[in-house]
Every structure is written in structure tokens, then in C-alpha cells.
Amino acid sequence: MKADIAVIDYGMGNLRSVSKAIEHVAPSASVVVTADPAVIAAAGRVVFPGQGAAPDCMREIDARGLRQAIVDAAHSKPFLGICMGMQVLFEHSEEGDTACLGILPGTVQRFPHEAMVDDRGAKLKVPHMGWNNVHQAMPHPLWTGIEEGERFYFVHSYFVQPAAPDIIAGFSHYPFPFTCAVASGSIFAVQFHPEKSQNAGLALLGNFVTWNPGEHAAACDVSGAACA
Amino acid sequence: MLAKRIIPCLDVTHGRVVKGVNFVELKDAGDPVEIARRYNEAGADELTFLDITASSDERDLILHIIEAVAAEVFIPLTVGGGVRAVGDVQRLLNAGADKVSINTSAVVNPQLVKDASDRYGSQCIVVAIDAKRSGDHWEVFTHGGRRATGLDAVEWAKKMESLGAGELLLTSMDRDGTRSGFDLALTRAISDAVDIPIIASGGVGTLQHLVDGVKEGRADAVLAASIFHFGEYGIDEAKRYMRQHGIEVRL
Questions:
Q1: Domain residue spans in chain A?
Q2: Nearest chain A Cα to B119, which residue?
Q3: Which residues of B touch A11 (CB under 8 A)?
Q4: Would you state the CATH architecture of domain A5-223?
Q5: Cross-chain residue pair B221–A130, CB shorter than 8 Å
Q6: Residue B92: inside a domain
Q7: How many domains does chain B have?
Q8: Is residue B251 part of a domain?
């Protein structure tokens, strides 16, 4: 069976929301939730979600023999990482001192307790939970039709720190700026949950299911625009 | 900046939305899927379903409701009521819930909170605390507010956080259904005692009560049912009022 869009299932959390939202924006596509490396390899596009803790995620990825399939997919086809599926693309997570996939250079760290106060001195809760503004740090096809500063739904206690600032596609504030979207080649990854972010989230998923990373690169070459 | 959330609460029994007045007298307010769709379009930040069905043989009704809602409403959905085991959490998540709220069973079996958050992540485990003032402190009640536990609500909140709760849904039993406003002292005491987000619930009768819950009670989210269900106020109207009073909201 060849899926248009494969949603990687590695036992970390509820994937129904993700697959339902993708079916909603791509009603004619075949969307398959799968833990089969062969299905992932054959799919046209791959979504890599995930909830829970980094050590569990990495353990489950390896227990299912999915590591190579994820690395290959990230380098070869439109690939969307969501939440934990964004964090484990990096080299290392502070959560449980965990070695991650190392597809993107950088680390993952916790919101530092001492920094969690707003400009009025009030305590900021962790996890960072709710709707926050997402600022676009680069033009990208996945931002098409989404307003600068649009709100998306977040729930997380850790955030990524890319080693290369040129992959930062979006950032948010809590209370300091942190990276909430990255783009590199055929990879786009977000800390927030597009599948739970109502119209803005559906717009981003809709952009993903029609995204052609090769075209984007070509357009950048021609125009000379600053593209990642 | 992170927005304070407004969460309409749908109490569901026999497949219909009702809202308790002091958890006893019930009024019918309609079809859950239709109401969920309407709240989504109106800009609700999340939705909470509380299954108040008494008998376990009707328990599966809520699963069908959640499945139907999750297929067309793309905002976070929390479901609570009758969650007794990790298997219950799993069934609700599989039906399309994003978070599961645990109340009585957290008191009966605190290990359930730890097991469920270890298995599915803290982000999807909400512990609901029903509290009633008792002298100079607040006591935790269970079974829909009918049974006293002897537990101090503030200490209980801290324990639930340590066992892995990702969020607390705090209801004042003294205020629920009275429309006289949140118990702000209770909300503030618990919000200050923990680092996880607090949803204030119980007693909302006016838009100013929502503002007070955030500003005085330091709640991260406010939950209300009857003021929205019967069309007294719209979600958008509530958010505009909160913004006028200096509260960050999603409009």
C-alpha cells in the first residue's frame, strides 16, 4: 500500500488529532498512521508528531526500528515535525540527558525556572500551555496565507536551540524569544500543534500537503531572495 | 504573548449537554456536537466535556460524541468524568480527546495520575479538584461534590503536580452554580502553590468574574458553562471585555 501521507506512529501519544486534521485539509489523499519503515519510505510526504518525554520517544523509535526511516524521510521528501517530533530531530535533549536523532544541529532545553516571570513580575507556568503569537523569521511556503504574529496552540516544557540560526523559521516569546519553527531543505518542524490550532493550523497543514521543497529552492535561486 | 484561555464546559449525560446548578438541578442545553461546533466558530480556546453519566453501561456514549467532535473541531478537547483506570484514559485519547481530566479516581488511587502521565505525558493529564471552604482552608471533595476527603486542597494540588498532572481544573463547590464569581482566594492560593497552569471554575455569572479570575485569582484559564450556553454572553464578547481590562486573549 502506498500512502500519500504517512503519519509516523511510534507509540507516543494520540495521533488521531493529527491524522484527522490532515484528512480535513487533504480529503482526497490517503493518510496512513504507520510504524512500518517500508510504508514511510514509500510515502509521498511524512508527518512526524509526538508527545511525552524525550527519553521515551527515542527508546520507542529504536524499539520499532524507525530511526533510519525517519532520517531518510527527513532528507528526501516533504517532512513535517510536530512538538516532540521537532525536538528529537536535534542532537541532544536536556530532558533525561537524551541523545536524539541529530538530523538538525542544536539542542533542546527546559524553560529555566528562574526566568519564568512576566514583565509585571507574575509567575509564568510550565508547561507553556495555550495560544501564543508565532513570528515568522523567514519567508516560507508553509507560512502562505498565515498572518505574521498569528496565534497557535502550544503545550510543552522544552524548546529547541538550533546551532545554525539560518534554519529558524519562526519564534515565540515566553517570556524570552524561543524558536518554535525550523526549516531546512525538505524539513519543516514546529513546536506548536497545527492540528489543534483551528484555522491557522489547518492553513499550515494545507500548505504542507501541497508543498514542493524543490520548487521553493528553485524560486529562491531565481529571485536571489534569502531562502533557507 | 501567551493568551489567557476561555474554556466553555459541556456537562454531558445521556448524550446531551446539561449544566448542573450546585450539581443537583439540571437543565437541558442541547446537542454536544452542535454546541462544540458553535463554540469553535465563536473562538473558544479549548472545550471541556464532563461526562456526568452515572451508570457505566452508558459510558461509551461519550466516546461517540468525542469522535464526532474531534473529526471537525480542531482545538484542544478535554474529557473528564468516570475515568478510573489507565485504560479509560487510553479509550478517551483514542476517541480524539487531547486531555483527560481525573477527579475522584485521583483521590481513590493517586498512582493513576502518575501511571497515566508516565504513559501518555503530563500534557494530557488534567487533575480536577473540587474544593469547599472549611474554616481557614479548603477541603477536597469527590463524587460530584458529595463526599468529603479530609484532604487540604492546596497540599493536594502540590501532590498532583508532583505525580505528573500537567494542569489543574479547580472548582469551588461553594460557588458552583451560584453565579457569584470564582472563589478568588482559593484560586490564588493554588495558582501560587504550583508551577503548572490552573483553570478556574465554579461561579461565573458576569464577564467581570472572568477578569477577576485571571487578575485576582491568577488563573491561566477560565472555565464557564451557563453564561455561554444560554446565549447571555458570546465568547467573543467575553474576550473583548477581558482585553479591555488588560488581559491578553486570542481574538
A1: 5-223
A2: A52
A3: none
A4: 3-Layer(aba) Sandwich (3.40)
A5: yes
A6: yes
A7: 1
A8: no
Tell me if B250 is assigned to some domain.
Answer: no
For residue B130, indicate whether it is catalytic: yes
pTM for the predicted model, two decimal places = 0.93
Give the pLDDT confidence of B44-77 residue by residue, as tens digits. 999 999 988 766 667 788 999 999 999 999 999 9
Which of B3, B98, B221 is the closest to A17 by Cβ? Answer: B98
For A88-156, the DSSP string reads TTSSEETTTTEE---SSSEEEEEPPGGG-B-TTSPBPPSSEEEEEE-EESS--GGGTT--TT-EEEEEE
**B122 vs A127: CB contact, 8 Å cut-off?**
yes
Mean pLDDT of chain B: 90
**Per-residue confidence band for B7, with pLDDT thresholds at 50, 70 and 90:** very high
Span A12-48, pLDDT tens digits: 767 888 999 999 999 999 999 999 999 999 999 999 9
Task: Give a yes or no: residue B249 inside a domain.
Answer: no
Q: Given an 8 Å threshold on Cβ–Cβ distance, is B195 in contact with A125? A: yes
Q: Band the pLDDT of A217: cuts 50, 70, 90.
A: low
Instruction: Write the residue in B45, B93, B123 that is nearest to A155 by C-beta.
Output: B123
- Which residues constitute the domain of residue B232? 5-244
Nearest Cβ partner for A174 among B2, B74, B76: B2
Alpha-carbon distance B120 to nearest alpha carbon in chain A (angstroms): 6
* CATH number of domain containing B183: 3.20.20.70
